[in-house]
Amino acid sequence: MSHQSLFRDTIFALSSGGLPSGVAVIRLSGPQTVAVLASMTAERIPPPRKAALRELVGDDGEPLDRAIVINFPGPASFTGDDCAELHVHGGKAVVAAVLEHLGRKDGLRAAEAGEFTRRAFLNGKLDLTSAEGLADLVAAETELQRRMALINAEGGQRDIYDGWRKRLLHARAMIEAELDFADEGDVPGSVAAEVWTDMSAMQQEIANHINGYHAAEIIRDGYRVVLLGAPNAGKSSLLNALARRDVAIVTEIAGTTRDLVEVSLDLDGLKVIVTDTAGLRDSSDTVERIGIERALRAAEEADLVLKLKDGSPDMPGFDLADLESKALSVGTKADIAPHRTGEFHHIVSVIDGAGLSALIEDIGRHAKGAVSAASGVLPSRLRQLELLRSCGHHLSLAAEVQQELELRAEELRLAGDALGRITGAIDVEDLLGVIFSEFCIGK
Ligand SMILES: Nc1nc2c(c(=O)[nH]1)N(C=O)[C@@H](CNc1ccc(C(=O)N[C@@H](CCC(=O)O)C(=O)O)cc1)CN2
Ligand SMILES: Nc1nc2c(ncn2[C@@H]2O[C@H](COP(=O)(O)OP(=O)(O)OP(=O)(O)O)[C@@H](O)[C@H]2O)c(=O)[nH]1
Hints:
Blueprint: E1 10-14, E2 21-29, H1 33-40, E3 52-57, E4 63-72, E5 83-90, H2 92-103, E6 108-110, H3 115-122, H4 128-139, H5 143-153, H6 156-183, H7 189-211, H8 213-221, E7 223-229, H9 235-243, E8 261-267, E9 270-276, H10 286-301, E10 304-309, E11 327-331, E12 346-347, H11 356-372, H12 382-400, H13 405-423, H14 429-437
Parallel strand pairs: 1-6, 7-9, 7-10, 10-11, 11-12
Antiparallel strand pairs: 1-2, 2-5, 3-4, 4-5, 8-9
Helix pairs in contact: 4-5, 6-7, 6-13, 7-12, 8-11, 12-13
Bound molecules: the ligand Nc1nc2c(c(=O)[nH]1)N(C=O)[C@@H](CNc1ccc(C(=O)N[C@@H](CCC(=O)O)C(=O)O)cc1)CN2 and guanosine-5'-triphosphate.
């Protein structure tokens, strides 16, 4: 082996998805990889990084499958350790037989969730934000999620945070120099003054970057739309029409929906979550009252509220004034209710489909509007946001402690450490369990 592995165990996992499938990819990483390949391929091991067809055999020489085999000797591999891939026929029994065979070998064990990527991180193959980007890329369901995740997986965030860290290091070096000059009674203050100009520019850049978090949250977790209205206003019917399937129960009985019912839509590449809620009314029923509280809380947290109303009189007793700035009024049951145009933003019927596509378009427009202000690389996780805030906080402290250069330098160091924690350049051992556990097995 041309390099030393940090890890004694050789790990393996099915890295492709559900079975059966046309082809299934089993990945291995660790010091035993080459020995395993030698024992399983009757013929010679394929040359590095070249796919080759090989018969795979068990210990008794019995064939397991005919497979495409790739050998990736470390360090030029995904994890940085010796790796291999077995592309076998994607049958359940085929995969089971190969995994069972691997599991019986000394020094081999099934990989934990995210363990390949964790090893890649610990071997310095990628930074923490790239690893998080990879997790998001594998989880991505919509076009915008895919784009954001790919940028981060390729080091978009890392480049920005490393850039800021370099500027902080430079600033500290300048301050050290100024302190040394001060000892000699000769203070070229103008040199260090440039530092503070740059630091305050950077503070602004970080503040702008932080402002993009909300947009990233919407892209990642979805734009939240909540349907509100009196019982029987037609909320569940509208939800089903938007989802194009029967998700929520629809009856003519007022008070049918008790809990929140969510559907996820893909509007133009953006994930939109629409939530059906319990109808708002004075109720003595405990379950219904809890449902109504949940409805109001969901509306408070929503990005957009659709207030539904059929032809019946106004719902009493609920002050929705606080929601007004993010609400659209929707007149429902247009086929039977004589709504006046001008009274509502939208008038719809789920019976004849009137107004539905205009409503969907408008929801899409609002969702796009919520993310369009943000562009470029965004902070995509709470973990990152908190460390960015900490960085900004120390920068502003550095600006405040006017005369005392040592204190200012110390605040700049703390600001840089916060950035280093985002990329994993420093002190993150305690975070790794949380970060990598959200990965799939085999990643
Ligand atoms: N079959 C297969 N497809 C795959 C992956 C994989 O591991 N196997 N990937 C897994 O995520 C993604 C591709 N990402 C990869 C990233 C790095 C390396 C790798 O071997 N890197 C080495 C050598 C680079 C080179 O020769 O250019 C290195 O970084 O040193 C492989 C795949 C998507 N498709
Ligand atoms: N004619 C007509 N009837 C509708 C329309 N939308 C809903 N309805 C009917 O109105 C009744 C109530 O509809 P739901 O969708 O269950 O109303 P809801 O607001 O979810 O009611 P709760 O769960 O009680 O809060 C049902 O009988 C539906 O068939 C519509 O566009 N046109």
